[in-house]
Amino acid sequence: MASEMKIPIVTILAFLLSLVKATQVEITQEWKPDFGWEVTCSWNLYMNDTLQSVNLSKNKQQFFIFRPETQYGNLRKTNTWDLVESVMKVDCLEAVDSGIKGKCVLSLEPQVPPRRDFTFGCEVSGERPYFRMGQREVTVEALVPPSKAVMNVMTPESGPASLNCSTSGLPAPNIIWTVDDQKVPPNFHGVPVWNATSKLWDVWSSFTPQPEALHRVQCTPEVKKGNQLVRGLASQYNDAYRIVLDGTMIIISALATLLL
User: Fold this and answer.
1) Residue 152 confidence (pLDDT) above 70
2) What CATH architecture does domain 23-140 belong to?
3) How confident is the model at residue 66 (pLDDT cuts 50, 70, 90)?
4) Which of 51, 111, 115, 129 has minimal CB crowding within 10 Å?
């Protein structure tokens, strides 16, 4: 009886190997300027496996299933949803035969200002008999760090110079003015404007310092979201002076060309 119960060692090793080698799933996300988010789920199956399906979910609700079917010679499937808040597109493609490697790319282009985070989940399953599975989920935050502050100098014919600082981000950034690293209140804060091209909030603020303090002024953009505080690159008066001077020289050169 003992000899009848023996299992070949090769069979045992093959079984153990099938358990150890699971499907590998990775998710990456990127904010693409003037577009929105791109979230990519890529997979790598065990070498002798075959792709059975890829299930995609948003906020834990399944919205797309990719089951390989040959379309125009490619193992690919795409779909687009034109929603009120965004245009959402999914493009799934097998990169290697039998779906051993591949990826699904979620593109999300906001049509209105994004206000909420969302989760994106990806579950990949191999074919029978093992149905090896792998899954990942990430949270895509409605947060884009503020752009580098841009400072301009407005010099009236009479009176002190006024400084204007602008930036963009998501949510709408705040602009912090400092003199010698000491925070000072602005003279005016512009109303944030949603930019349908950049998909970000544009903001600006102005400050009129004492003439002797001009060279010590700095504006710093920051975005607050919950407990997070993300600062962008600051701009100083000296930077603004060079920008304004360059712009003036360009205007003078253009006028000189027209008069010749």
Assistant:
1) yes
2) Sandwich (2.60)
3) very high
4) 129
